[in-house]
Design a protein that fits this description.
The complex is a heterodimer of chains A (557) and B (197). By secondary structure, chain A is mostly helical. Among the domains of chain A are: 179 residues, no CATH class; 164 residues, no CATH class. In chain A, 69% of the residues lie in helices and 1% in strands. Chain A has a two-stranded parallel sheet with strand order 1-2. Chain B is α+β, with helices and mostly antiparallel strands and 197 residues long. Chain B has a six-stranded mixed β-sheet, with no helix packed on it. In chain B, strands 1, 2, 3, 5 and 8 form a five-stranded mixed β-sheet that branches. Chain B starts with a helix and ends in a 7-residue tail after the last helix. Classes of the chains: A mainly alpha (557), B alpha+beta (197). The interface between A and B is large, with 87 and 81 residues.
Chain lengths: 557, 197
């Protein structure tokens, strides 16, 4: 831990210990990211290796392909994202409400995610849990693995508690004011996620853990999937919303622009609160145990949850344009070139937004259940989500880290140029990678596949070119990711000390908080709407589904 | 709440676009008769292999041009592995798994279902062109997942006597690696009922 002046420490409401705890969340995120992308590199290279090659077994965590794939998914989709969010979002809420986070809540959150990650990683390394991050039974991991994953999820509840307590404390002192925008967006994210995470919590605690412990012999694979996807779609927004917090409330400041509208920003986050959860069956269009009628209901809701992202496209672009025009950009598109393309934090996030355009469009295709029959469970799907969570989220987090780590530690980023290069490399890499996965997926290449050992040969040029692009793009992404880890490590080790890097906070609006109706700040109403929509979307299923406990555990690895 | 003019236009266009997507989807469902798999019947994975219909997997002609293909998806092969039908046949697939979750995707068709232990998955397709249609398992089902495939062979009307409507191969005992090497499937992998503790 470098002992230098941190801007976070200068805040009167944060103690040294608070800053240290939040900083360690970010360190954990970066460490999980480093190991996770190494596993990813092995998977990318597997696409182009001859069948006899055993190069990929020399990578750590590669006793078999699916062990590495489990590590990749768990470390990146759960540990990296959750730890980063725990650290960043707590800090944003603290700055926004100008309050100290509860010590037990933030220390608990850090302790749980460290212990949980280590337990899960231990079981994956021991090859006792090659169940992938979706952990569908009857594939059965050890009880320790399920406990580890549970602790990782529960750590986010402790962060949620810290956020809610800061909000309550602020509200008591300001009963009649509109809450500060950044704190509001953090609240919306964690309220949504707390409700959403109850599905996977029920799956693990009521089904998987007792079954893995041997307390019950059989489990119900269909019910487990329904509970998993209750959380499995909204988790996408739990990953994404910290990036949205940055795009809405920080990027406008970083590019010298205005936020378009305070009230529409709040409305967008509230729409995610009410619409994220009642959409899970669009991941289960091809599941036999769920009726076509309910799948259709979830399809309609899924079209609805695109709406806040479309508003976001408008608002964020308007902020960028206002910044670009102030910086001297003229003409229809001239403002784009006037944006600060030399700022690594901005560049990473601008490119993340561009990636999200493609990710969003491919997501709309997944959600349309006619076309879903073409792409479901093909490599199209990882092509899609490497553009969303793998770029819109991950690249935004890297961009955020470029100011966040200096803000927390007081160390200046060692090289802005390498930071800019890193963002571009990731973006170019993912475009090639996703193009390969998507084009092969349209031609039915299954996802989650140990390609070097593929037993059925199809002379399909789309598969072959897809494999090559996946390998090339994935390798470029790995190089970029490794550069990011190196830049952060180098910054901690050799970064210039005593630099004050503040958290960017938007302070100019086209339409500001004074125009915001109080209804947009009333949590009870919006939580009630969210619960009603969940009851409409999931009530008929859970009320009519007859449990079907038929499956003993299987460990085919 | 004040909303700027351009933003109002954008919001209206967004809502119209999303509504149009939904309407177009429902029209295409009507026009092409697209259906999603739904609950039909359940089976007990422990006993399904000795009970009808999965004790006798294969293809039967139920009426003129209509076939019923009863398939088992398990680690790591399909039974039958090859389904042969004459061109123009409409085949209803009913698939179940005695072990873990599998998937069935038949290339160049809209047959795409999950096979979840305890549930029977059904899907229907009319094969209008002669040729071979690869069947792949598209859900991770263990270390032999990449070896799990089958095919539908659609033959010309003049070849019908050569065994159309038969499961030509009742399934191989174990999955094969690229070189023909068999993957042995230890009995211990098959089940760890009663937990692992």
């Amino acid at each position: 831990m470098p002992e230098s002046v941190s801007a976070a420490l200068l805040a009167p409401y944060l103690t040294k210990n608070d800053v240290r705890v939040l900083t360690w969340q970010i360190y954990l995120a970066v460490a999980a990211f480093a190991v996770g992308i190494l596993a990813g590199l092995a998977q990318a290279l597997d696409r182009v290796m001859p069948a006899a090659s055993s190069l990929w077994t020399r990578f750590p965590l590669q006793e078999n392909y699916y062990q590495g794939l489990t590590a990749h998914g768990v470390l990146l989709a759960f540990v990296f994202t959750f730890a980063f969010s725990n650290g960043m979002m707590t800090l944003v809420a603290a700055h926004s409400f100008k309050r100290r986070p509860n010590t037990i809540a933030i220390t608990g959150s850090l302790t749980l995610i460290v212990v949980g990650s280590l337990l899960a990683a231990w079981q994956i390394v021991a090859n006792q849990a090659s169940v992938l991050f979706t952990m569908y039974p009857p594939l059965q991991a050890t009880p320790i693995y399920y406990i580890g994953v549970t602790l990782v999820v529960v750590s986010t509840w402790f962060t949620a508690l810290a956020v809610v307590l800061m909000y309550r404390g602020w509200r008591v002192e300001h009963p009649d004011e509109i809450s500060p925008l950044q704190g509001f967006t953090v609240m919306a994210t964690y309220v949504m996620w707390f409700i959403a995470s109850l599905g996977v919590a029920a799956e693990v605690l009521l089904l998987l853990l007792p079954w893995s412990l041997g307390l019950v012999d059989k489990t119900d694979p269909q019910l487990a999937r329904a509970l998993f996807w209750f959380s499995g779609h909204p988790v996408v927004y739990f990953w994404l919303l910290p990036a949205y917090v940055s795009w809405y409330t920080m990027i406008p400041k970083q590019v010298g622009g205005k936020l378009f509208s305070d009230s529409l920003t709040r409305l967008v986050f509230l729409l995610f609160l009410v619409l994220s959860i009642p959409t899970g069956f669009h991941h289960q269009y091809t599941d036999p145990g769920i009726s076509e009628a309910l799948k259709t209901v979830h399809f309609v809701m899924t079209m609805g949850v695109f709406f806040p992202s479309l508003i976001t496209a408008f608002s964020v672009m308007a902020s960028l344009e206002s910044g670009g025009r102030r910086a001297g950009g003229t003409g229809l598109l001239g403002w784009i070139w006037a944006l600060p393309w030399g700022d690594p934090s901005v560049v990473a996030q601008l490119l993340a937004m561009l990636g999200f355009v493609l990710g969003g469009i491919s997501g709309l295709i997944n959600a349309s259940y006619t076309v879903n029959l073409v792409v479901h469970n093909t490599s199209w799907v990882p092509g899609h989500f490497h553009l969303t969570v793998g770029t819109a989220v991950a690249l935004s987090f890297m961009g955020i880290a470029y100011w966040l780590v200096p803000h927390l530690t007081g160390r200046e980023l060692v090289s802005r140029r390498l930071g800019v290069l890193q963002g571009w490399l990731w973006f170019i890499g993912v475009l090639i990678f996703a193009r390969g996965q998507i084009s092969a997926g349209i031609e039915s290449l299954p996802r989650r596949l140990n390609v070097s050992k593929l037993n059925y040969v199809l002379d399909n040029p789309a598969w072959h070119s897809g494999h090559v692009m996946t390998a090339v793009g994935g390798t470029i992404m790995f190089i970029s990711g490794a550069l990011f880890v190196a830049l952060i490590a180098w910054t901690l080790w050799r970064g210039k000390e005593s630099t004050i890097v503040k958290m960017p906070v938007v302070d100019e609006y086209v339409s500001g908080p004074e125009e915001t109706p109080p209804l947009l700040d009333r949590w009870g109403v919006w939580i009630a709407i969210a619960i009603v929509l969940i009851l409409i979307a999931y009530g008929p299923f859970f009320l009519t589904y007859a449990p079907n406990f038929v499956s003993g555990g299987q460990t085919p690895w | 709440m004040k909303v700027e003019f351009y933003e109002k236009v954008f919001i209206a266009l967004s809502l119209v676009m999303l509504a149009a997507f939904a309407v177009f989807l429902f029209i295409s469902v009507q026009q092409h008769g697209i259906t999603l798999v739904g609950p039909t019947q359940r089976v007990d994975p422990a006993t399904m292999l000795s009970e009808p219909p999965f004790d006798d997997p294969g293809v039967v002609e139920t009426s003129d041009g209509q076939y019923l293909a009863t398939m088992i998806a398990r680690m790591w092969f399909f039974t039958p592995e090859v389904i042969t039908v004459p061109v123009g046949s409409t085949v209803t697939f009913q698939v179940a798994s005695p072990d873990v979750i599998h998937g069935v995707k038949i290339l160049d068709t809209d047959v795409n279902v999950m096979v979840i232990p305890g549930q029977v998955s059904t899907s229907k397709h009319t094969f209008d062109e002669v040729g071979e249609y690869l069947i792949v398992c598209h859900e991770y089902c263990g270390t032999g997942h990449q070896g799990m495939s089958g095919k539908v062979v659609v033959i010309g009307a003049d070849e019908v006597d050569d065994g159309a409507g038969e499961g030509a191969d009742e399934g191989s005992p174990d999955a094969l690696l690229p070189g023909g090497e068999e993957i042995a499937v230890p009995e211990a992998w098959r089940s760890t009922e009663g937990g692992r503790s």
